[in-house]
Structure formats: C-alpha cells, structure tokens
Amino acid sequence: MCGLMMRLKWCAWVALYCSCISFANSRLSDDTKQILSSFMLSISAIVMSYLQNPQPMTPPWAAAVN
C-alpha cells in the first residue's frame, strides 16, 4: 500500500518480492484469493509508479549520499 499510495518504486518492488515469498511458502489449503490480491496490488503499485515517473529507479540511500 505504501508503494501504491506514495509512488515509491523501491517499496513497490519489495512488495512484489514479499508476494513471491508468500506464494512460495503458502500451502494448498491457504486462501488463493488473498495471494492473488497481494500479487495484483504489488503489480499495480509498480505499474502506477512507473506510469507517473518512467525514469529508472534510484536507491533510497542515493539521496543521502548526494
């Protein structure tokens, strides 16, 4: 949600990474709708952040260095 609302690209990528880990650790009896909604939310956050600002992602620590 943070990546989607605040348009933070790194946060959206972390959300997608966490969704993949959640999918890998899920069991067959787990709710597939929740896993699918997690994927869709993270993918939509990535798409929305790159639609607003198509420049390549800068690491969050790069602003502190400059």
Automatic annotation (TrEMBL):
It comes from Zophobas morio. It is found in: Membrane. GO terms for molecular function: protein folding chaperone. It comes from the Eukaryota. Residues 1-26 form the signal peptide. GO terms for biological process: protein insertion into ER membrane. The lineage of its organism: Eukaryota, Metazoa, Ecdysozoa, Arthropoda, Hexapoda. This is Protein Asterix. Its main location: membrane. Keywords: Membrane, Signal, Transmembrane, Transmembrane helix. InterPro entries: ASTER. Belongs to the Asterix family. GO terms for cellular component: endoplasmic reticulum membrane.
